[in-house]
C-alpha cells in the first residue's frame, strides 16, 4: 500500500465527513421513497396489473442482499483503494438510484436499486475512517449520534414530504424519484471537487453505534495487543456470533419493516381511511431519534447489567408495536403514539446492544472487525429471509396472518438476547419502579 503525503487538514476532513453523512441520508430517502411509491412503480412496469407482494418487495430484498455483500467487502476495498477512491466508488454506486428511473424493465430497475444499496452500505462503513482521522476524541460521541440517527433523519424527511405533498408525488413516480435521486449526483460532483486522500485509519468501532467510556471500564475491554490472531474461520465457529446475529436479524425485522413495507400494506388492508402510511414512518423515526438522544444523555452515564436491560426494552418495543397494529382500525392517532413509543424503545437500547461485543473478555481489534463484518452480513441475511417469508404469508394467508408472523419473527430478538453472556458484574444494579412493580436490573 503506497504512502500518501500531504494529508488533508481537519477542515477538509470534516467537509468530506459531511458529504458522506449527507450521502447516507440521501440513500435512506431513496430507499424509503422507492418503497412508499412501490405501487406506482409496479403499475408502471406491469401496465397496471396486480402483482403479488413478493414482486412488490423484490426491490427491498435486493437492497438488503447488497448490504450483506457490502458489509463483508467494505474494509477490504477501503484498505486496497484508500478512502478517497473507495468513497468515490460508493458514491458512484449510489447514483444508480438515478439511473434506475430510466430503465425499461422492472428487473433492470431492481438491479440498479441493488447497486444503489451496495453504495449506501459501503458509505456507512467508510465514514468510520473519516471520524477516526479528523474528529477529536471529545467530539466523537456527537458524530456517533449523527451517524446513528442518519437513517432515521432520511426516513423522517421522506415521511414529512409525502405527508405534505403526496398527491403531487404519486402523479408520476419518475419525477418524484428524480427529485430524491439528483442529490446523489450532486454529492458525487462535490466529492470529485473537494475530497483528498489519506492513509486509512482502521479502527474497529462500528460506525453505527456508540462506544461509551462509561461502558468500557473493564480491564478486559479492547486490547491494543492482539493475543491470538482471530480469523474468519474462527468467526464461523463462534457461537456468540450466531446468537448475536440472529437477535440482530429480529431487531432489523421489527425496525425496517415499518419504514419500507408495512405502512403501505396497512393502508391497503386496515379499515381506517384516516391512517396515513407516511405518518407511521414519521412516528417510528421520530421515536427512534428521541430514543437515540435518551441513550446518549442517560444510558452512557450508568453502569448496569446488560441482559435484563435489553430484554425489557425488547419486550416493550415489540409490545407497543403490537398494540399500535391492533389499534390501527379503531384509532389512527393511538396507533401513531404506540408506533412512536416502540421506535423510542428500539433506539434507546440499540447502542447498548451493539456495544456488547466490545465488553466480551479478551476482545481485540482483529476479532472485532471480523465479528462485525459477519454480524451485519448475517443480520441482514436473516432480515431478508424474514421479509421474503412475510411476503409469502401475506400473499397466501392474508393480512392478519402476516402481522402475526411479523411480530413472532421479531420475538427472536428477545429469545437470543437471553442467550447472551452478562458482561457487567451482578453487583451493578439499577432499581426501577414501573406501574408499582419493582425491577432490579
Describe this structure in words.
The protein has 441 residues and is mostly helical. It has two domains: 1-198, Growth Hormone, Chain: A (Up-down Bundle); 226-441, Growth Hormone, Chain: A. The chain is 72% helix and 2% strand. It has 16 helices and two strands. The chain has helices at 10-36, 38-45, 53-94, 96-99, 106-134, 140-169, 173-194, 232-237, 239-260, 262-269, 277-297, 306-327, 332-355, 365-397, 399-410, 412-417; strands spanning 431-434, 437-440. It has a two-stranded antiparallel sheet with strand order 1-2. Strand 1 (431-434) and strand 2 (437-440) form a beta hairpin. Mean pLDDT is 83; it is low at 203-226.
Low-confidence stretches: 203-226
CATH class of the largest domain: Mainly Alpha
Structural class, judged by helices and strands? mainly alpha
Order of helices and strands: HHHHHHHHHHHHHHHHEE
Instruction: Quickly give the CATH architecture of the largest domain.
Output: Up-down Bundle
Q: How many angstroms separate the termini?
A: 49 Å
Give the overall shape. globular
Cα Rg: 21 Å
Task: Give the helix level as a range of percent.
Answer: over 70%
Query: Biggest sheet, strands in spatial order?
Result: 1-2
User: If you consult CATH, what is the topology of the largest domain?
Assistant: Growth Hormone, Chain: A
Number of strands: 2
The CATH homologous superfamily of the largest domain is named MFS general substrate transporter like domains
